[in-house]
Amino acid sequence: MQSSIPALFESKMFRMISIGIALLLVAVCIFRAGMSIGYRKAAFTYQQGDNYYRAFGRHVPRPYGIPMHDEFMDTHGAVGKIISVDAASIVVSSPDGIERVISMSTTTRIKYLDDTVPATSLHVDDFVVIFGVPDKSSRVDAKLIRILPPPPETSTTSTSHRSSL
Question: pTM of the prediction?
Answer without folding.
Answer: 0.53
